[in-house]
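User: What would this chain look like folded?
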Amino acid sequence: MTDPTAADRQPPKAGGLRARLGERLRTEVDSGLLPAVRDEQLNMVLGHTRLGTIVATVFAVYLAVELRGVALPAWMIDVWLVAKLVVVGARIGLSLRYDRLGRPGGETWRNTTDAWLLADGAVWGAAGGLLMASAIPLASLVGAVMACVSCVATFGLQHSKRSTAAYVVPILGLTALGLFLRGDEFGSFGGPGVLMLLGLLLATAAASERRLVDGLLLRLRAEALTAEKDDALKLAMRESSAKTQFLGNISHELRTPLHGILGVARLLHLEARDAGVARRVELIESSGSHLLRLINDLLDVARLDAGRFSIRSERFDLAGLTRTLGDVYAVRAGDKGLGFSAQLHFDGPCWVQGDPARVRQVLHNLLGNAVKFTQRGSVSLTASRDATTGVVSVEVQDTGPGIAPADLAGVFDAFRQSGAHEGRSLEGTGLGLFIARDIAQAMGGDLSLRSAVGVGTLASFTARLPDAVDIGCADADSPGAEPAGSGVRVLIAEDDDVNAVIATAYLEHLGVQAERVRDGAQAVRHALRDLNRPDLVLMDCRMATMDGLSATREIRVQEHALGLPRLPVIALTATSSEVSREQCHEAGMDDFLGKPYTQEELSRVLHRWAPQHAPLAAA
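Assistant: Here's the prediction, encoded as C-alpha coordinates.
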Protein backbone atom coordinates (compact mmCIF):
# COMPACT_ATOMS: atom_id res chain seq x y z
CA MET A 1 0.00 0.00 0.00
CA THR A 2 1.29 3.45 -0.87
CA ASP A 3 2.48 5.47 2.16
CA PRO A 4 1.64 9.09 1.28
CA THR A 5 2.75 11.89 3.61
CA ALA A 6 1.82 15.53 4.00
CA ALA A 7 5.26 16.47 2.65
CA ASP A 8 4.10 15.27 -0.78
CA ARG A 9 1.48 18.04 -0.96
CA GLN A 10 1.51 19.82 -4.31
CA PRO A 11 -0.21 23.12 -5.11
CA PRO A 12 -3.24 22.57 -7.31
CA LYS A 13 -3.72 24.26 -10.63
CA ALA A 14 -6.75 26.26 -9.61
CA GLY A 15 -6.64 29.52 -11.53
CA GLY A 16 -9.63 28.72 -13.73
CA LEU A 17 -11.51 26.98 -10.93
CA ARG A 18 -11.03 29.96 -8.63
CA ALA A 19 -12.41 32.30 -11.28
CA ARG A 20 -15.46 30.08 -11.84
CA LEU A 21 -16.10 29.74 -8.12
CA GLY A 22 -15.72 33.48 -7.61
CA GLU A 23 -18.23 34.15 -10.38
CA ARG A 24 -20.68 31.64 -8.95
CA LEU A 25 -20.37 32.90 -5.36
CA ARG A 26 -20.26 36.55 -6.47
CA THR A 27 -17.23 37.17 -4.29
CA GLU A 28 -13.48 36.92 -4.60
CA VAL A 29 -12.18 33.47 -3.70
CA ASP A 30 -8.81 33.26 -1.97
CA SER A 31 -6.64 30.70 -3.76
CA GLY A 32 -5.38 29.55 -0.38
CA LEU A 33 -8.85 28.24 0.47
CA LEU A 34 -9.05 25.77 -2.45
CA PRO A 35 -6.56 23.24 -1.00
CA ALA A 36 -8.48 23.41 2.27
CA VAL A 37 -11.72 22.67 0.39
CA ARG A 38 -10.15 19.64 -1.33
CA ASP A 39 -8.79 18.42 1.99
CA GLU A 40 -12.27 18.67 3.49
CA GLN A 41 -13.67 16.68 0.55
CA LEU A 42 -11.01 14.04 1.14
CA ASN A 43 -11.92 13.87 4.82
CA MET A 44 -15.55 13.23 3.90
CA VAL A 45 -14.64 10.53 1.36
CA LEU A 46 -12.37 8.69 3.78
CA GLY A 47 -14.88 9.16 6.57
CA HIS A 48 -17.35 7.13 4.49
CA THR A 49 -14.79 4.43 3.73
CA ARG A 50 -14.96 2.19 6.77
CA LEU A 51 -18.70 1.71 7.21
CA GLY A 52 -19.59 1.76 3.51
CA THR A 53 -16.76 -0.56 2.54
CA ILE A 54 -17.52 -3.06 5.29
CA VAL A 55 -21.20 -3.24 4.31
CA ALA A 56 -20.31 -3.63 0.61
CA THR A 57 -17.76 -6.34 1.42
CA VAL A 58 -20.26 -8.36 3.46
CA PHE A 59 -22.61 -8.22 0.49
CA ALA A 60 -19.76 -9.20 -1.86
CA VAL A 61 -18.96 -12.28 0.24
CA TYR A 62 -22.62 -13.29 0.24
CA LEU A 63 -22.79 -12.82 -3.54
CA ALA A 64 -19.64 -14.88 -4.07
CA VAL A 65 -20.96 -17.74 -1.96
CA GLU A 66 -24.26 -17.76 -3.87
CA LEU A 67 -22.64 -17.65 -7.32
CA ARG A 68 -19.73 -20.02 -6.65
CA GLY A 69 -19.89 -22.78 -9.26
CA VAL A 70 -23.18 -21.49 -10.71
CA ALA A 71 -22.22 -19.09 -13.49
CA LEU A 72 -18.43 -19.15 -13.31
CA PRO A 73 -15.89 -21.71 -12.20
CA ALA A 74 -15.32 -21.80 -8.47
CA TRP A 75 -11.63 -20.82 -8.79
CA MET A 76 -12.60 -17.61 -10.63
CA ILE A 77 -15.06 -16.66 -7.90
CA ASP A 78 -12.38 -17.40 -5.27
CA VAL A 79 -9.81 -15.22 -7.05
CA TRP A 80 -12.37 -12.43 -7.35
CA LEU A 81 -13.23 -12.62 -3.65
CA VAL A 82 -9.55 -12.57 -2.61
CA ALA A 83 -8.97 -9.54 -4.82
CA LYS A 84 -11.99 -7.85 -3.28
CA LEU A 85 -10.78 -8.52 0.27
CA VAL A 86 -7.24 -7.26 -0.52
CA VAL A 87 -8.55 -4.02 -1.98
CA VAL A 88 -10.96 -3.52 0.90
CA GLY A 89 -8.19 -4.13 3.43
CA ALA A 90 -5.99 -1.58 1.68
CA ARG A 91 -8.76 1.02 1.67
CA ILE A 92 -9.58 0.54 5.36
CA GLY A 93 -5.87 0.60 6.27
CA LEU A 94 -5.43 3.82 4.30
CA SER A 95 -8.34 5.42 6.14
CA LEU A 96 -7.01 4.38 9.56
CA ARG A 97 -3.49 5.66 8.79
CA TYR A 98 -4.93 8.95 7.55
CA ASP A 99 -6.76 9.47 10.85
CA ARG A 100 -3.72 8.40 12.88
CA LEU A 101 -1.55 11.02 11.14
CA GLY A 102 -4.03 13.77 11.96
CA ARG A 103 -5.69 13.98 8.53
CA PRO A 104 -2.78 15.69 6.75
CA GLY A 105 -4.59 16.11 3.43
CA GLY A 106 -2.79 16.97 0.21
CA GLU A 107 -2.81 15.82 -3.40
CA THR A 108 -0.83 12.64 -2.72
CA TRP A 109 -3.41 11.38 -0.24
CA ARG A 110 -6.19 12.37 -2.62
CA ASN A 111 -4.61 10.54 -5.58
CA THR A 112 -3.90 7.44 -3.49
CA THR A 113 -7.46 7.34 -2.19
CA ASP A 114 -8.93 7.65 -5.68
CA ALA A 115 -6.54 4.99 -7.00
CA TRP A 116 -7.80 2.46 -4.44
CA LEU A 117 -11.39 3.48 -5.22
CA LEU A 118 -10.65 2.80 -8.88
CA ALA A 119 -9.21 -0.61 -7.99
CA ASP A 120 -12.24 -1.49 -5.87
CA GLY A 121 -14.58 -0.37 -8.64
CA ALA A 122 -12.62 -2.45 -11.15
CA VAL A 123 -13.06 -5.57 -8.98
CA TRP A 124 -16.82 -4.99 -8.85
CA GLY A 125 -16.85 -4.20 -12.59
CA ALA A 126 -14.96 -7.39 -13.43
CA ALA A 127 -17.71 -9.43 -11.81
CA GLY A 128 -20.37 -7.43 -13.60
CA GLY A 129 -18.69 -7.70 -17.01
CA LEU A 130 -18.05 -11.44 -16.78
CA LEU A 131 -21.48 -12.34 -15.42
CA MET A 132 -23.31 -10.37 -18.14
CA ALA A 133 -22.66 -13.35 -20.43
CA SER A 134 -24.86 -15.54 -18.21
CA ALA A 135 -28.50 -16.33 -18.72
CA ILE A 136 -30.81 -13.35 -18.78
CA PRO A 137 -32.29 -13.93 -15.28
CA LEU A 138 -28.82 -14.11 -13.66
CA ALA A 139 -27.48 -11.28 -15.81
CA SER A 140 -30.46 -9.14 -14.82
CA LEU A 141 -29.85 -9.88 -11.13
CA VAL A 142 -26.15 -9.07 -11.35
CA GLY A 143 -26.90 -5.91 -13.34
CA ALA A 144 -29.31 -4.80 -10.64
CA VAL A 145 -26.67 -5.54 -7.97
CA MET A 146 -24.09 -3.43 -9.83
CA ALA A 147 -26.61 -0.59 -10.20
CA CYS A 148 -27.46 -0.70 -6.47
CA VAL A 149 -23.79 -0.77 -5.43
CA SER A 150 -23.11 2.22 -7.69
CA CYS A 151 -26.09 4.21 -6.40
CA VAL A 152 -25.24 3.56 -2.75
CA ALA A 153 -21.59 4.43 -3.40
CA THR A 154 -22.59 7.67 -5.12
CA PHE A 155 -24.62 8.64 -2.09
CA GLY A 156 -21.52 8.25 0.11
CA LEU A 157 -18.92 9.60 -2.31
CA GLN A 158 -20.86 12.52 -3.80
CA HIS A 159 -18.67 14.99 -1.87
CA SER A 160 -16.13 14.50 -4.68
CA LYS A 161 -17.06 14.07 -8.32
CA ARG A 162 -13.63 12.59 -9.07
CA SER A 163 -13.85 10.00 -6.29
CA THR A 164 -17.37 9.05 -7.37
CA ALA A 165 -16.21 8.62 -10.96
CA ALA A 166 -13.19 6.56 -9.88
CA TYR A 167 -15.52 4.06 -8.20
CA VAL A 168 -18.67 3.88 -10.33
CA VAL A 169 -17.21 4.27 -13.85
CA PRO A 170 -15.37 0.91 -13.78
CA ILE A 171 -18.37 -0.80 -12.17
CA LEU A 172 -21.00 0.37 -14.64
CA GLY A 173 -18.60 0.74 -17.55
CA LEU A 174 -17.45 -2.89 -17.46
CA THR A 175 -21.02 -4.03 -16.80
CA ALA A 176 -22.22 -2.12 -19.88
CA LEU A 177 -19.34 -3.58 -21.92
CA GLY A 178 -20.40 -7.10 -20.89
CA LEU A 179 -23.97 -6.34 -21.99
CA PHE A 180 -22.86 -5.03 -25.37
CA LEU A 181 -20.67 -8.12 -25.92
CA ARG A 182 -23.74 -10.38 -25.56
CA GLY A 183 -24.84 -9.25 -29.02
CA ASP A 184 -28.49 -9.94 -28.34
CA GLU A 185 -31.56 -7.80 -27.77
CA PHE A 186 -31.11 -7.90 -23.98
CA GLY A 187 -27.58 -6.55 -24.27
CA SER A 188 -28.59 -3.88 -26.79
CA PHE A 189 -31.29 -2.66 -24.42
CA GLY A 190 -29.41 -3.06 -21.11
CA GLY A 191 -26.06 -1.56 -22.19
CA PRO A 192 -27.37 1.94 -23.01
CA GLY A 193 -29.53 1.85 -19.89
CA VAL A 194 -26.51 1.18 -17.69
CA LEU A 195 -24.58 3.99 -19.40
CA MET A 196 -27.48 6.40 -18.86
CA LEU A 197 -27.49 5.44 -15.17
CA LEU A 198 -23.75 6.12 -15.08
CA GLY A 199 -24.28 9.56 -16.61
CA LEU A 200 -27.04 10.34 -14.12
CA LEU A 201 -24.85 9.32 -11.16
CA LEU A 202 -21.93 11.44 -12.40
CA ALA A 203 -24.22 14.43 -12.92
CA THR A 204 -25.66 13.97 -9.43
CA ALA A 205 -22.16 13.80 -7.95
CA ALA A 206 -21.11 16.93 -9.86
CA ALA A 207 -24.11 18.90 -8.60
CA SER A 208 -23.57 17.71 -5.04
CA GLU A 209 -19.88 18.60 -5.21
CA ARG A 210 -20.73 22.06 -6.51
CA ARG A 211 -23.10 22.74 -3.62
CA LEU A 212 -20.64 21.30 -1.13
CA VAL A 213 -17.69 23.32 -2.45
CA ASP A 214 -19.73 26.52 -2.40
CA GLY A 215 -20.77 25.89 1.19
CA LEU A 216 -17.25 24.94 2.26
CA LEU A 217 -15.77 28.03 0.63
CA LEU A 218 -18.25 30.29 2.34
CA ARG A 219 -17.64 28.57 5.68
CA LEU A 220 -13.86 28.68 5.33
CA ARG A 221 -13.98 32.28 4.21
CA ALA A 222 -16.13 33.16 7.22
CA GLU A 223 -13.71 31.28 9.50
CA ALA A 224 -10.77 33.11 7.92
CA LEU A 225 -12.48 36.46 8.41
CA THR A 226 -13.31 35.54 12.00
CA ALA A 227 -9.70 34.52 12.61
CA GLU A 228 -8.47 37.76 11.06
CA LYS A 229 -10.89 39.71 13.24
CA ASP A 230 -9.77 37.81 16.34
CA ASP A 231 -6.11 38.40 15.48
CA ALA A 232 -6.79 42.08 14.88
CA LEU A 233 -8.69 42.30 18.16
CA LYS A 234 -5.87 40.57 20.06
CA LEU A 235 -3.34 42.89 18.43
CA ALA A 236 -5.45 45.93 19.27
CA MET A 237 -5.82 44.73 22.86
CA ARG A 238 -2.06 44.18 23.15
CA GLU A 239 -1.37 47.60 21.70
CA SER A 240 -4.01 49.17 23.92
CA SER A 241 -2.53 47.44 26.96
CA ALA A 242 0.95 48.60 25.99
CA LYS A 243 -0.34 52.12 25.43
CA THR A 244 -2.13 52.12 28.77
CA GLN A 245 0.98 50.86 30.53
CA PHE A 246 3.11 53.45 28.75
CA LEU A 247 0.70 56.23 29.66
CA GLY A 248 0.63 55.05 33.25
CA ASN A 249 4.42 55.07 33.42
CA ILE A 250 4.81 58.38 31.62
CA SER A 251 2.06 59.84 33.80
CA HIS A 252 4.04 58.96 36.90
CA GLU A 253 7.28 60.28 35.41
CA LEU A 254 5.64 63.57 34.40
CA ARG A 255 3.53 64.09 37.50
CA THR A 256 6.36 63.51 39.97
CA PRO A 257 8.60 66.42 38.85
CA LEU A 258 5.51 68.51 38.14
CA HIS A 259 4.42 67.99 41.74
CA GLY A 260 7.79 69.37 42.79
CA ILE A 261 7.50 72.39 40.51
CA LEU A 262 3.95 73.26 41.53
CA GLY A 263 4.50 72.45 45.19
CA VAL A 264 7.59 74.64 45.53
CA ALA A 265 5.90 77.42 43.55
CA ARG A 266 2.91 77.33 45.90
CA LEU A 267 5.18 77.42 48.93
CA LEU A 268 7.05 80.40 47.49
CA HIS A 269 3.72 82.07 46.80
CA LEU A 270 2.64 81.58 50.41
CA GLU A 271 5.90 83.06 51.69
CA ALA A 272 6.36 85.83 49.12
CA ARG A 273 6.28 89.34 50.56
CA ASP A 274 7.11 91.24 47.40
CA ALA A 275 4.19 91.72 44.97
CA GLY A 276 6.43 91.37 41.92
CA VAL A 277 7.90 88.12 43.15
CA ALA A 278 4.42 86.82 43.99
CA ARG A 279 3.25 87.64 40.47
CA ARG A 280 6.18 85.76 38.90
CA VAL A 281 5.49 82.77 41.11
CA GLU A 282 1.84 82.87 40.03
CA LEU A 283 3.03 82.61 36.42
CA ILE A 284 4.99 79.48 37.32
CA GLU A 285 1.90 78.04 39.01
CA SER A 286 -0.27 78.93 36.04
CA SER A 287 2.09 77.30 33.53
CA GLY A 288 2.45 74.21 35.70
CA SER A 289 -1.30 73.92 36.16
CA HIS A 290 -1.78 74.23 32.41
CA LEU A 291 0.70 71.42 31.82
CA LEU A 292 -1.09 69.30 34.43
CA ARG A 293 -4.42 69.81 32.66
CA LEU A 294 -2.87 68.70 29.36
CA ILE A 295 -1.50 65.55 30.99
CA ASN A 296 -4.85 64.80 32.62
CA ASP A 297 -6.71 65.33 29.34
CA LEU A 298 -4.43 62.91 27.48
CA LEU A 299 -4.85 60.31 30.23
CA ASP A 300 -8.63 60.74 30.16
CA VAL A 301 -8.68 60.15 26.40
CA ALA A 302 -6.60 57.00 26.89
CA ARG A 303 -9.09 55.80 29.53
CA LEU A 304 -12.00 56.51 27.20
CA ASP A 305 -10.35 54.55 24.38
CA ALA A 306 -9.65 51.63 26.72
CA GLY A 307 -13.18 51.68 28.17
CA ARG A 308 -11.80 52.33 31.65
CA PHE A 309 -13.31 55.75 32.18
CA SER A 310 -15.25 55.61 35.43
CA ILE A 311 -17.35 57.95 37.54
CA ARG A 312 -16.89 57.84 41.30
CA SER A 313 -19.77 58.24 43.74
CA GLU A 314 -19.32 60.27 46.91
CA ARG A 315 -21.22 62.84 48.88
CA PHE A 316 -20.48 66.51 48.16
CA ASP A 317 -22.02 69.96 48.35
CA LEU A 318 -22.95 71.02 44.83
CA ALA A 319 -23.81 74.55 45.94
CA GLY A 320 -20.45 74.98 47.63
CA LEU A 321 -18.59 73.58 44.62
CA THR A 322 -20.27 75.91 42.11
CA ARG A 323 -19.94 78.88 44.46
CA THR A 324 -16.20 78.30 44.85
CA LEU A 325 -15.69 77.99 41.10
CA GLY A 326 -17.75 81.11 40.54
CA ASP A 327 -15.51 83.04 42.94
CA VAL A 328 -12.36 81.78 41.20
CA TYR A 329 -13.53 82.77 37.73
CA ALA A 330 -14.93 86.07 38.92
CA VAL A 331 -11.35 86.99 39.84
CA ARG A 332 -9.96 85.69 36.52
CA ALA A 333 -12.61 87.55 34.55
CA GLY A 334 -11.90 90.71 36.52
CA ASP A 335 -8.19 90.41 35.70
CA LYS A 336 -9.16 90.57 32.00
CA GLY A 337 -11.55 93.47 32.51
CA LEU A 338 -14.61 91.27 31.98
CA GLY A 339 -17.84 91.31 33.90
CA PHE A 340 -18.87 88.14 35.73
CA SER A 341 -22.20 87.17 37.25
CA ALA A 342 -23.36 83.99 38.98
CA GLN A 343 -26.98 82.98 39.56
CA LEU A 344 -26.87 79.92 41.81
CA HIS A 345 -30.39 78.74 42.55
CA PHE A 346 -29.66 76.76 45.70
CA ASP A 347 -31.27 77.26 49.10
CA GLY A 348 -28.20 76.69 51.23
CA PRO A 349 -26.00 73.58 50.87
CA CYS A 350 -27.06 71.07 48.20
CA TRP A 351 -25.76 67.64 49.19
CA VAL A 352 -25.71 65.22 46.27
CA GLN A 353 -24.14 61.88 45.38
CA GLY A 354 -21.69 61.92 42.48
CA ASP A 355 -18.14 62.62 41.37
CA PRO A 356 -17.19 66.14 42.48
CA ALA A 357 -13.83 66.00 40.70
CA ARG A 358 -15.51 65.28 37.35
CA VAL A 359 -18.20 67.92 37.88
CA ARG A 360 -15.45 70.38 38.74
CA GLN A 361 -13.53 69.31 35.62
CA VAL A 362 -16.49 70.02 33.33
CA LEU A 363 -17.22 73.41 34.90
CA HIS A 364 -13.54 74.38 34.81
CA ASN A 365 -13.53 73.60 31.11
CA LEU A 366 -16.67 75.60 30.31
CA LEU A 367 -15.77 78.60 32.48
CA GLY A 368 -12.14 78.49 31.40
CA ASN A 369 -13.08 78.55 27.71
CA ALA A 370 -15.55 81.38 28.27
CA VAL A 371 -13.01 83.58 30.06
CA LYS A 372 -10.17 82.65 27.70
CA PHE A 373 -11.97 83.42 24.44
CA THR A 374 -13.95 86.46 25.58
CA GLN A 375 -12.03 89.71 25.04
CA ARG A 376 -14.85 92.17 25.78
CA GLY A 377 -18.14 91.96 27.62
CA SER A 378 -18.98 89.43 30.31
CA VAL A 379 -19.33 85.83 31.38
CA SER A 380 -22.28 84.47 33.36
CA LEU A 381 -22.79 81.25 35.32
CA THR A 382 -26.25 79.85 36.07
CA ALA A 383 -26.78 76.65 38.08
CA SER A 384 -29.82 74.87 39.49
CA ARG A 385 -31.04 71.40 40.45
CA ASP A 386 -34.46 69.79 40.19
CA ALA A 387 -35.05 68.18 43.57
CA THR A 388 -37.59 65.75 42.10
CA THR A 389 -35.50 64.29 39.27
CA GLY A 390 -32.04 65.11 40.60
CA VAL A 391 -31.10 66.71 37.27
CA VAL A 392 -28.49 69.45 37.59
CA SER A 393 -28.49 72.19 34.94
CA VAL A 394 -25.55 74.53 34.46
CA GLU A 395 -25.28 77.21 31.78
CA VAL A 396 -22.22 79.30 30.95
CA GLN A 397 -22.88 82.31 28.70
CA ASP A 398 -20.17 84.51 27.21
CA THR A 399 -19.95 87.43 24.78
CA GLY A 400 -16.93 86.05 22.96
CA PRO A 401 -16.33 85.78 19.20
CA GLY A 402 -18.74 82.85 18.82
CA ILE A 403 -18.30 79.69 16.80
CA ALA A 404 -19.00 79.42 13.08
CA PRO A 405 -21.65 76.84 12.05
CA ALA A 406 -19.01 74.87 10.15
CA ASP A 407 -16.93 74.53 13.33
CA LEU A 408 -19.87 73.94 15.66
CA ALA A 409 -20.65 70.55 14.10
CA GLY A 410 -17.23 69.17 15.07
CA VAL A 411 -16.57 71.08 18.28
CA PHE A 412 -16.86 67.89 20.37
CA ASP A 413 -14.38 65.94 18.24
CA ALA A 414 -11.09 64.99 19.88
CA PHE A 415 -8.12 67.23 19.05
CA ARG A 416 -10.44 69.67 17.27
CA GLN A 417 -10.30 73.41 17.96
CA SER A 418 -12.79 75.86 16.53
CA GLY A 419 -11.19 78.74 14.73
CA ALA A 420 -7.94 76.88 14.14
CA HIS A 421 -8.42 77.09 10.37
CA GLU A 422 -8.70 80.87 10.60
CA GLY A 423 -5.07 81.21 11.60
CA ARG A 424 -5.74 82.03 15.25
CA SER A 425 -3.14 80.82 17.75
CA LEU A 426 -5.05 78.59 20.13
CA GLU A 427 -3.85 76.98 23.33
CA GLY A 428 -4.67 73.46 24.44
CA THR A 429 -5.09 70.09 22.81
CA GLY A 430 -8.71 70.35 21.70
CA LEU A 431 -9.69 67.60 24.15
CA GLY A 432 -11.56 69.57 26.80
CA LEU A 433 -15.05 69.54 25.30
CA PHE A 434 -14.61 66.01 23.98
CA ILE A 435 -13.89 64.74 27.50
CA ALA A 436 -16.46 67.02 29.15
CA ARG A 437 -19.30 65.65 27.01
CA ASP A 438 -18.31 62.07 27.81
CA ILE A 439 -18.31 62.94 31.51
CA ALA A 440 -21.76 64.52 31.21
CA GLN A 441 -23.16 61.49 29.39
CA ALA A 442 -21.58 59.13 31.93
CA MET A 443 -23.46 61.08 34.61
CA GLY A 444 -26.77 60.61 32.82
CA GLY A 445 -26.77 64.07 31.22
CA ASP A 446 -25.30 65.82 28.22
CA LEU A 447 -23.31 68.81 27.06
CA SER A 448 -24.37 71.08 24.20
CA LEU A 449 -23.33 74.39 22.68
CA ARG A 450 -25.27 77.14 20.95
CA SER A 451 -23.29 79.90 19.35
CA ALA A 452 -23.49 82.83 16.95
CA VAL A 453 -20.48 84.53 15.41
CA GLY A 454 -20.02 87.99 16.89
CA VAL A 455 -22.60 87.37 19.62
CA GLY A 456 -21.18 84.69 21.90
CA THR A 457 -21.64 81.11 23.06
CA LEU A 458 -24.00 79.38 25.48
CA ALA A 459 -22.78 76.07 26.94
CA SER A 460 -25.41 73.87 28.63
CA PHE A 461 -24.33 71.05 30.94
CA THR A 462 -26.73 68.59 32.57
CA ALA A 463 -26.09 65.67 34.91
CA ARG A 464 -28.19 63.42 37.12
CA LEU A 465 -26.95 63.72 40.71
CA PRO A 466 -29.28 62.04 43.24
CA ASP A 467 -29.71 63.17 46.81
CA ALA A 468 -26.76 62.26 48.99
CA VAL A 469 -27.02 59.16 51.14
CA ASP A 470 -27.34 59.90 54.87
CA ILE A 471 -27.74 63.65 54.54
CA GLY A 472 -27.94 64.09 58.30
CA CYS A 473 -24.33 63.12 59.00
CA ALA A 474 -21.59 65.70 59.12
CA ASP A 475 -19.33 65.77 56.08
CA ALA A 476 -15.61 66.04 56.37
CA ASP A 477 -15.40 68.53 53.54
CA SER A 478 -18.15 70.77 54.77
CA PRO A 479 -17.28 74.12 56.30
CA GLY A 480 -19.24 73.26 59.44
CA ALA A 481 -17.46 70.00 60.16
CA GLU A 482 -15.24 69.89 63.20
CA PRO A 483 -11.67 69.85 61.83
CA ALA A 484 -8.65 67.87 62.88
CA GLY A 485 -6.28 69.64 65.21
CA SER A 486 -2.76 70.89 65.57
CA GLY A 487 -1.91 67.98 67.86
CA VAL A 488 -2.15 65.58 64.93
CA ARG A 489 1.02 63.61 64.15
CA VAL A 490 1.47 62.68 60.49
CA LEU A 491 4.09 60.24 59.22
CA ILE A 492 5.30 60.97 55.67
CA ALA A 493 6.73 57.93 53.84
CA GLU A 494 8.37 59.53 50.79
CA ASP A 495 11.69 58.73 49.10
CA ASP A 496 11.77 61.86 46.93
CA ASP A 497 13.32 64.78 48.81
CA VAL A 498 11.42 67.48 46.91
CA ASN A 499 8.07 65.78 47.46
CA ALA A 500 8.90 65.29 51.13
CA VAL A 501 9.76 68.98 51.53
CA ILE A 502 6.44 69.98 49.93
CA ALA A 503 4.36 67.63 52.08
CA THR A 504 6.17 68.72 55.24
CA ALA A 505 5.71 72.41 54.44
CA TYR A 506 2.01 71.94 53.67
CA LEU A 507 1.50 70.14 56.97
CA GLU A 508 3.42 72.81 58.90
CA HIS A 509 1.24 75.51 57.33
CA LEU A 510 -1.76 73.54 58.58
CA GLY A 511 -0.26 73.36 62.07
CA VAL A 512 0.32 69.61 61.93
CA GLN A 513 3.36 67.75 63.31
CA ALA A 514 5.17 65.99 60.45
CA GLU A 515 7.80 63.24 60.50
CA ARG A 516 9.43 61.81 57.38
CA VAL A 517 10.84 58.36 56.55
CA ARG A 518 12.42 57.29 53.24
CA ASP A 519 11.07 53.80 52.54
CA GLY A 520 8.31 51.36 53.34
CA ALA A 521 10.30 49.33 55.86
CA GLN A 522 10.93 52.43 57.99
CA ALA A 523 7.27 53.39 57.61
CA VAL A 524 6.19 50.02 59.05
CA ARG A 525 8.47 50.40 62.08
CA HIS A 526 7.35 53.98 62.81
CA ALA A 527 3.66 53.18 62.24
CA LEU A 528 3.73 50.34 64.81
CA ARG A 529 5.85 51.90 67.55
CA ASP A 530 4.38 52.16 71.04
CA LEU A 531 5.56 55.68 71.86
CA ASN A 532 4.24 58.63 69.83
CA ARG A 533 2.54 56.44 67.24
CA PRO A 534 1.42 58.67 64.33
CA ASP A 535 -2.25 59.51 63.83
CA LEU A 536 -2.06 59.20 60.05
CA VAL A 537 0.39 58.04 57.37
CA LEU A 538 0.95 59.67 53.99
CA MET A 539 2.36 56.70 52.05
CA ASP A 540 4.09 57.08 48.70
CA CYS A 541 3.31 54.03 46.57
CA ARG A 542 6.66 53.75 44.79
CA MET A 543 9.65 53.54 47.12
CA ALA A 544 12.87 51.55 47.32
CA THR A 545 13.45 48.67 49.76
CA MET A 546 9.69 48.25 50.32
CA ASP A 547 7.00 50.00 48.31
CA GLY A 548 3.97 51.68 49.84
CA LEU A 549 1.55 48.88 48.98
CA SER A 550 3.70 46.21 50.63
CA ALA A 551 4.29 48.45 53.64
CA THR A 552 0.56 49.02 54.09
CA ARG A 553 -0.18 45.29 53.88
CA GLU A 554 2.45 44.64 56.54
CA ILE A 555 1.00 47.36 58.78
CA ARG A 556 -2.48 45.82 58.52
CA VAL A 557 -1.15 42.34 59.32
CA GLN A 558 0.78 43.57 62.35
CA GLU A 559 -2.14 45.68 63.60
CA HIS A 560 -4.32 42.58 63.59
CA ALA A 561 -1.66 40.45 65.28
CA LEU A 562 -0.87 43.03 67.98
CA GLY A 563 -4.45 44.18 68.52
CA LEU A 564 -3.64 47.79 67.57
CA PRO A 565 -6.29 50.24 66.33
CA ARG A 566 -6.39 50.81 62.59
CA LEU A 567 -4.09 53.62 61.47
CA PRO A 568 -5.37 55.69 58.52
CA VAL A 569 -3.02 55.30 55.54
CA ILE A 570 -3.35 57.72 52.62
CA ALA A 571 -1.84 56.76 49.26
CA LEU A 572 0.41 59.32 47.59
CA THR A 573 0.96 58.49 43.93
CA ALA A 574 1.48 60.16 40.60
CA THR A 575 -0.43 57.32 38.91
CA SER A 576 -4.09 58.26 39.15
CA SER A 577 -5.76 55.42 37.24
CA GLU A 578 -8.67 53.40 38.58
CA VAL A 579 -6.40 50.36 38.62
CA SER A 580 -4.04 52.21 40.96
CA ARG A 581 -6.94 53.15 43.22
CA GLU A 582 -8.11 49.54 43.35
CA GLN A 583 -4.59 48.32 44.15
CA CYS A 584 -4.31 50.84 46.97
CA HIS A 585 -7.70 49.84 48.37
CA GLU A 586 -6.84 46.13 48.20
CA ALA A 587 -3.56 46.80 50.02
CA GLY A 588 -5.50 48.32 52.92
CA MET A 589 -5.10 52.02 52.21
CA ASP A 590 -7.95 54.29 53.29
CA ASP A 591 -7.79 57.16 50.80
CA PHE A 592 -6.00 58.32 47.69
CA LEU A 593 -4.21 61.61 47.03
CA GLY A 594 -2.88 62.01 43.51
CA LYS A 595 0.22 64.03 42.75
CA PRO A 596 0.45 66.88 42.21
CA TYR A 597 -1.87 67.81 45.05
CA THR A 598 -2.57 71.16 46.67
CA GLN A 599 -2.53 72.19 50.31
CA GLU A 600 -6.33 72.45 50.16
CA GLU A 601 -6.63 68.85 48.93
CA LEU A 602 -4.28 67.65 51.66
CA SER A 603 -6.31 69.60 54.22
CA ARG A 604 -9.52 67.87 53.11
CA VAL A 605 -7.88 64.47 53.53
CA LEU A 606 -6.76 65.39 57.04
CA HIS A 607 -10.28 66.54 57.87
CA ARG A 608 -11.63 63.15 56.80
CA TRP A 609 -9.13 60.88 58.55
CA ALA A 610 -7.19 62.66 61.29
CA PRO A 611 -8.45 62.51 64.90
CA GLN A 612 -10.22 65.55 66.31
CA HIS A 613 -7.89 67.92 68.18
CA ALA A 614 -7.34 71.66 68.01
CA PRO A 615 -8.44 73.32 64.73
CA LEU A 616 -6.18 73.25 61.68
CA ALA A 617 -4.71 76.44 60.38
CA ALA A 618 -6.52 77.91 57.37
CA ALA A 619 -5.63 76.20 54.11
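Residues 185-271 form the longest helix (87 residues). If you want, I can go into more detail on any region.
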